[in-house]
Amino acid sequence: MDSSYSFALGTSSSILPKLSFRNVENRFYGEKNNNNGLCKRFGSDLGSKKFRNQKFKHGVVYAVATSDNPKKAMTVKTSMFERRKVDPQNVAAIILGGGNGAKLFPLTMRAATPAVPVGGCYRLIDIPMSNCINSCINKIFVLTQFNSASLNRHLARTYFGNGINFGGGFVEVLAATQTPGEAGKKWFQGTADAVRKFLWVFEDAKNRNIENILILSGDHLYRMNYMDFVQSHVDSNADITLSCAPVSESRASNFGLVKIDRGGRVIHFSEKPTGVDLKSMQTDTTMLGLSHQEATDSPYIASMGVYCFKTEALLNLLTRQYPSSNDFGSEVIPAAIRDHDVQGYIFRDYWEDIGTIKTFYEANLALVEERPKFEFYDPETPFYTSPRFLPPTKAEKCRMVDSIISHGCFLRECSVQRSIIGERSRLDYGVELQDTLMLGADYYQTESEIASLLAEGKVPIGIGKDTKIRKCIIDKNAKIGKNVIIMNKGDVQEADRPEEGFYIRSGITVIVEKATIQDGTRRLLFLSQSQICFFFAASSRGLSLRKLIPSSSSPSVSRITMEGSGGDSGSMATPVQKKVHEAWRVYQYYLDKTTPHSTNRWIGTLVVFLIYCLRVYSIHGFYIISYGLGIYLLNLLIGFLSPLVDPELEVSDGATLPTRGSDEFKPFIRRLPEFKFWYSMTKAFCIAFLMTFFSVFDVPVFWPILLCYWVVLFVLTMRRQIAHMIKHKYIPFSIGKQKYSGRKSSANSGGGSRAD
């Protein structure tokens, strides 16, 4: 005889965590989890035998069950308290690898962010890929867009074919592509838009059993068991779960911050807040289990950019509720908090977002510490990378302190301190590296090739004799000659010198990929505190001065150094040259100080422009100078608006696959950079202003004719330039990523790019 029954389960919130339940409240189960898996399990586990009342010890777990048939009772089985274990076969991971990598530039000049080397022999993409493999998640999608050739090649060599065995799983690279329709003509506009464009893959038969989807970033350094994260997501029955980490106030504004209640639910999300908004996100992190001191040091909770979605919830959010939202962090997540169950998962182990040059450099060098917070060496959860079949490193009479040396390197009587040396690196006699990250080389040059290059006065790949380098990142295949010194004693923070093969970011010198720095017998390089390169020509008698005095240490020493004061004095420099050099250094120093302050620079230029206009208006003359100035400024503007690589001049043979040398998906690079545009314009105004004090330049002309001619020339030129921009679909101006306002849907928000 069938019978119906009802039950209630009560518990203390201090008990359920011990039973592996997370984010629970002191309430009756069934009140929150109506019709979910737990209630169904109770229904199947409770029998129909004779049972009137059964009560367990109060304070632990107790249940009261009644039957409408007094002759029958029910029994309670222990399995009723077992949670449903998530099957990894029902979980898929999406790794976002399509951002333009602007914050890691110039390392991303030719490579996508996830393809940047890390830790000597790994790539950033190996971090989430290895975490997935170690978590038994074998259905992985990688979204790519910018500079994807090297990333695709690494994935193919490592995880396809003879690479890692996935045991019935797969790794699919989903490259940005254009499809029919207006929306299909656009590339990825952000993280959410990238996922939205490939939601159709989950309609395939092989993917229909996927219940939960992980969204992972490709520029983080951490070791994480994703299945623990997914299990917490399923236990809480959340629509979305965010992986979070406590952070200090100094770092908080770099991340999306969350506030969670004591039940683990996310109640507020703010993307990279500052000022008052930042203070409002402060949280008592002792409720996360932190000590009082730890909570004081880390009063904020940051989103790690690692999300777990129910498949149904993700489809609903991206296709129906917010079809025009482009970014998870600034648009989708803040909006979803209002009408979806969004839970927080606290990750207490090491995690670092290495999407900037500074954090990338610091996180890499932290690996060489005696007891690092993170290390790749773990036999239980190893990190995988491409098998390169390189020989062991050969070191001859070298001094190495707190360093990591990768495979296949040749080190000869050199000193390496607190540095990482990448694969196939070559360090010649007398080289001194300190606090340096060397990314290595893609191929070897034989001894005969090196000898031939040196005999011809050329520089082979690697670092030449007696070169000294401090606090530097050396990108792949760089060629640094002998007797070169690279250091930043003056602590210059920002500088762009692409024509010389290096940049400075946050005080860190970055030698770009394939850059060549000649040794002292060819061209000597000296970089003063002002970050400007000055060249010398070698002669049989020594060095001839062009812009700066040579170093006194040796007539053949080439220097790239930002020195604080003094500098080296050369015996060949005259007193006049010394004075000119010193004045030039001071001028360049203050000029470079203005590099990051673009708004103030342009305000100053506007003031100079107004002064010039008042001068010309007051004396009613020098119109020919103004006309020439206008023509010059028009040429500068065209260079500023034009791309470095003009699509009009490229020869097209039809549709082709991307190659290593192709420029597809690269971020917009101006033919005339903003700083040079500003500097040339300001200098032109100043020169024109000085010329108004010499009557010889006051050529009488009928100025209305010149003005009309210049206006016609400007309109025709800019019309052609704008048509060129529209034809080739590049936009030289941008105002940054659109942020969620919190008042309405972000359907009208513009496109944004990935946060790196």
From TrEMBL:
This protein's pathway: Glycan biosynthesis; starch biosynthesis
Origin: domain of life: Eukaryota
GO biological process: one example: starch biosynthetic process
InterPro entries linked to this entry: ADP-Glc_PPase, ADP_Glu_pyroP_CS, NTP_transferase_dom, Nucleotide-diphossugar_trans, Rer1, Trimer_LpxA-like_sf
Membrane topology: Multi-pass membrane protein
Domain Nucleotidyl transferase positions: 93-368
UniProt protein name: Glucose-1-phosphate adenylyltransferase
Organism from which the protein derives: Arabidopsis thaliana (Mouse-ear cress)
